[in-house]
Design goal:
The chain has 16 helices and no strands. The chain has about 375 residues and is mainly alpha-helical. It has two domains: about 325 residues, ABC transporter involved in vitamin B12 uptake, BtuC (Orthogonal Bundle), CATH 1.10.3470; about 60 residues, no CATH class. Helix 3 packs antiparallel against helix 13 and helix 7 crosses helix 13. The longest helix has 28 residues. The chain starts with a helix and ends with a helix.
Amino acid sequence: MDNKSGFMRDAFQKNIRQYTMLFALVAIWVIFTVLTEGIFIRPGNLSNLFLQTMTVGVVAVGMTLVIVTGNIDLSVGSVAALAGAVGAYCQVRLGWDTAPALVAAVGCGLLIGLWHGFWIAYRMVPSFIVTLASMLIFRGAVLGVTGGTTIAPLSESFKALGQSYLDPIVSAAVGIIAILLFCFFDLRRRFRRVKYSFTVPSWPLQLLKLALGAAVMAAFFGILVFNEGVPYSVMLVLVLAVIFHFVSNHTVFGRHLYAIGGNADAAKLSGINNKKRILQLFTVFGGVTALGGLVLTSRLNAATTSAGQGMELDVIAAVVIGGTSLLGGEGTILGSLVGALIMASLDNGMSLLDTNITYQYVIKGLILLLAVWVDMATRKK
């Protein structure tokens, strides 16, 4: 009994920020449901809420590992806008098909990420300065590509990325498969821990965890299935989240990134090529940011000069609120997605209440400040 209670206590203390984040999300949903007289919790609004989360969610998945290494990227809004503008320009102005236009946009993001990685890793310029400069440089590039005008309309295949849905039956099948995989890998992890004599929760607690997780996933997919199906953008985020979760937890590359964020000097002394890893990370993140820009552009059905403005703040806030430490070395992909959902929930709920935009910015800023304070306070302990 002592071992079981000790396991639960240690697990709670280890994940206190993640639990706080989940409690905050539930509290926000309850408050907005009451204040909007149930409108917030309606399936149609929740489906729209999940769609609102996706643009930030795509970029937040990659930003998590950037911040885990102790770096930051302030240029994501400009880079996303530029990638979207490049894709739209190639299709609308040059007459390209959707596939090569999307490849060109992602390629643009990869090159920008490579540029960032070079200056940060090999010229030792702080990421804050490099990406702050890029925020200005590539916002100017957006104006250059678009000519200061809106590029529209996009083809149906281009718009599908941000506006189309999987068939409801296919969506239901995806949800069932996702639940089965969740249960399989969670049980597989338990049996592996038992094999190597690590502590595990009791079976009742394990089954409760599985039941809660399956219930949340069933509710998530159920809402989407009964509202046209799972959007392509949601599938994109889920696929990216699975890939990045696997990379961060089960690959040498991921372990190196966490080691660099925890103590860069110790990581270097242990044989990790810090510069190479940072270059690789920022290159990949550039491509991920481009995908976020394409989702945004396809949702708007246009590339605009103002696209992505303020995105960097929403992305960073989502990642930090989701439990990733600005000091580096700690953070999870799932946490960042929940953080993105919290930010989208605030925007959605305050819009339903017709809250003055002034107060919306103030509230979001205070929540970000509180999240960073919690991070610093728990680190000291």
